[in-house]
Design a protein that fits this description.
With about 350 residues, this protein is an alpha/beta fold. The protein contains 11 helices and 18 strands. It binds zinc ion (ZN) (2 copies). One zinc ion (ZN) binds next to loops.
Length: about 350
């Protein structure tokens, strides 16, 4: 079994060589040995997420320490288990299984946040590509009890972005308190999370989606199942446009996927009475407080919730939607040595859907 797989002594990884700027460098690293409870995974693909950019650029002011030079980033990895560490005999995964790594690479399982299913709030949780070496590399260690099994028949490259973008936006829609037939506004509907969220909402949950994004993303948003598209460029009164499409009332929920502070400022104004804003996109740079008055919240019974990642169960549900063909990832594949260029493209906001790195 485990002993029969021959592993190289060295392998390729992309590291952040100059954190604070857009730069990655390919290095050869030593093959690690799985510790107790861990598995060693030979990764074939990794998605590139906007959160990786935040970590590389050190632009998330709330992180406890600056990203260190030499950090391997990435948190949407898919690959095959090649070695089991000690104390993994009761694990539900084994050598040869295809599994995925998520934003939270592992949680403590014992704190209150873990017990109530708020994985991202675990005080000892390990963010992949920040606290631990991430998925922009050919081999990675992960806790056996926290990897996500990938369903048969789901392509590895297509599965990778679902492990962060897909799970998070699916979890957000579940927390939006919407029912089938309700209107949901998706701010940033044409991005990595947005095009998946639009599909989950319209095709998986029977919601009426109003997609808002740059006009260049109109086709992708409509193809993903949005009932309406509002271009952010060239629309002076977005709230007015949303009201017009919703019988003058506003949407039942707004999902904010962008890191744009202006989008957050506008979000409450798009809602009807009893509506919910779900915050996912992490604002960058200096924090800007949410713009909503207590009177607005009280008189219209507005709820504002935040979502960082989903649970293990939501990850399994997300991948199941994809395996059944309800949700399709819009992506293109690049090799690891193109990672820096991919980040530059992301920085210029030219990216449609997701880029997945082929790690072979
Ligand atoms: Zn992510
Ligand atoms: Zn915990």
């Amino acid at each position: 079994m485990a002993a029969s797989i021959d592993l190289p002594k060295k392998y390729k990884a992309a590291v952040y060589d100059k954190p604070g700027s857009i730069s990655t460098k390919i290095e050869e690293l030593d093959m690690p040995e799985p510790g107790p409870g861990e598995v060693l995974i030979n990764l074939s693909h990794s998605g590139v997420c906007h959160s990786d950019m935040g970590i590389m650029m050190q632009s998330w002011k709330h992180m406890p320490f600056p990203t260190q030079a030499g950090q391997v980033g990435g948190h949407e990895g898919v690959g095959k288990i090649v070695k089991m560490g000690p104390a993994t005999d009761t694990s539900s995964v084994g050598v040869g299984d295809r599994v995925g790594i998520k934003w939270m690479a592992g949680i403590c399982e014992t704190c209150d946040a873990c017990r109530v299913g708020l994985d991202a709030s675990c005080a000892k949780g390990k963010v992949s590509g920040y606290y631990t070496p991430g998925t922009f590399q050919q081999y990675v260690l992960a806790p056996a009890n926290y990897v996500t099994p990938i369903p048969d028949g789901l392509d590895s490259a297509a599965a990778a972005p679902l492990l962060c973008a897909g799970v998070t936006v699916y979890s957000a829609l579940r927390k939006s308190r919407t029912k089938s037939g309700n209107f949901v506004v998706i701010l940033g509907a044409g991005g990595g999370l947005g095009h998946l969220g639009t599909q989950f909402a319209s095709r998986g949950m029977a919601l009426r989606v109003i997609g808002i994004d740059h006009s260049s993303k109109k086709d992708l948003v409509l193809e993903s199942g949005a009932e309406h598209f509002i271009p952010i460029d060239g629309t002076d009164d977005v709230a007015g446009a949303v009201k017009e499409l919703t019988g003058g009332l506003g949407a039942h929920a707004v999902i904010v996927l962008t890191s744009n502070n202006k989008a957050y400022a506008s979000s409450v104004g798009l809602l009807r009475h009893g509506g919910t804003v779900v915050c996912i996109g992490m604002p960058e740079g200096d924090p800007v407080p949410f713009q909503a008055t207590p009177a607005q919240l009280i008189m219209s019974a507005i709820t504002i919730v935040g979502v960082a990642v989903g649970t293990r169960r939501e990850a399994i549900e997300t991948l199941d939607f994809a395996a059944r063909g309800v949700v399709k990832t819009h992506f293109r594949v690049e090799k690891l040595d193109k990672l820096t260029e991919v980040f530059k493209e992301m920085d210029e906001q030219k990216m449609q859907g997701r880029v997945v790195i082929d790690l072979s």
